[in-house]
Amino acid sequence: xxxxxxxxxxxxxxxxxxxxxxxxxxxxxxxxxxxxxxxxxxxxxxxxxxxxxxxxxxxxxxxxxxxxxxxxxxxxxxxxxxxxxxxxxxxxxxxxxxxxxxxxxxxxxxxxxxxxxxxxxxxxxxxxxxxxxxxxxxxxxxxxxxxxxxxxxxxxxxxxxxxxxxxxxxxxxxxxxxxxxxxxxxxxxxxxxxxxxxxxxxxxxxxxxxxxxxxxxxxxxxxxxxxxxxxxxxxxxxxxxxxxxxxxxxxxxxxxxxxxxxxxxxxxxxxxxxxxxxxxxxxxxxxxxxxxxxxxxxxxxxxxxxxxxxxxxxxxxxxxxxxxxxxxxxxxxxxxxxxxxxxxxxxxxxxxxxxxxxxxxxxxxxxxxxxxxxxxxxxxxxxxxxxxxxxxxxxxxxxxxxxxxxxxxxxxxxxxxxxxxxxxxxxxxxxxxxxxxxxxxxxxxxxxxxxxxxxxxxx
Length: 459
Ligand code: AMP
Fold this sequence. Notes:
It is built from 15 helices and 14 strands. It is α/β, with parallel strands linked by helices. It folds into 3 domains: about 5-290, 3-Layer(aba) Sandwich (Rossmann fold); about 305-415, Four Helix Bundle (Hemerythrin (Met), subunit A) (Up-down Bundle); about 415-450, no CATH class. The strands form 4 sheets. A 5-stranded parallel sheet has the order 5-4-3-10-11, sandwiched between helices. The protein has a 4-stranded antiparallel sheet with strand order 6-7-8-9. Strands 13-12-14 form a 3-stranded mixed sheet, with helices on one face. Helix 1 (about 40-55) links the parallel strand 3 (about 20-25) and strand 4 (about 60-65). The radius of gyration is 26 Å and the shape is globular. The mean pLDDT is about 95. Bound molecules: adenosine monophosphate. Adenosine monophosphate binds near residues 31, 40, 43 and 257.
């Protein structure tokens, strides 16, 4: 039985989906006004593994993400760069999707753009006005926080905190904590609405999108810790007021921050590393491994040395697979047989691994179980007391683990720094041959590298 820590109740609860083994999941997507950084990647890799595990456990998951493609930050950046906001948003949406692909984040079933859901947004605002949860002023339409007494139930904040809501400057609002559903604007980009030209507030796009695809009640809603207040709080107020159904979501899941020297990595603090920059010099799996070495709810302190440590740990796994493959494929006579003992070990390790993952997706515990296993198997190999048959089981189990963690664990060789330098020399020489149109020789180098499982792509 999988247990999930629910931010709403601050407890671990048994996973009990609304519809048998079908899970509807929504995770807040990015605001696409710049390249995504590795803080974003932390959140999306965590949810990628959560989904992989749910599927491994037999659930059918529908994973929805929104793309915030209309927002003040997009408009501001577009005007600085003298491009249309939509052009800017599409460019960075494309980059975001490329970055996710490079990181092996591949389980989102549907990305929904805010700008393509204006009718749904307008319908929700109309309902809120009609039911008396919202009011109109000369500057926009606002949600009336005082009409939803449970406001603050997710973040457990008191009214004073709520009143320092970030959009409290507008003097036309009844309460400082009221938030915008529709902002009246005549400057572009704007959309027509029953309240005049304007654009939607940030919170309403998510509930309009989730109602459309998941309905008024669904299983899991996720995002980074920073979204609990005010964003998710506002979502609850909107959706539960629109539908009258509670709760809007069964389990609220929040990821911890990726920090640098104790501070959250963010665009505004300027302490960010983009995913692209990181992947120039580092293998995406090394970063994925670093993320999964920490529990998804805990903070990660990012540093080069943490990356280095992840690289070394990951190499231990690859090294064992390489050794196992080598033995299985070799002609050497079988090592001593202790099949029963090893089969038990694999079974026991798998059970303990699943137990850790069932416990609120505890990836660091799961990894420490894997490393104990690796140590034991290495010892057995050194003492030549494990059969090829058992090594096959070891390999299958490690592949299973790789699938859940999103690590390929196949057809990959460990490249140390020296080999890497050597490869760079080969690639450089081949480049010179290509400049001289020595195609035959340059193709020969590529094909010989291919024989060594090194794929060279001319991009
Ligand atoms: P944004 O585009 O800023 O709305 O962020 C998209 C997602 O990334 C949200 O779920 C954020 O909570 C998450 N996020 C942003 N910065 C970080 C960080 N430093 N660590 C972890 N998650 C983050």
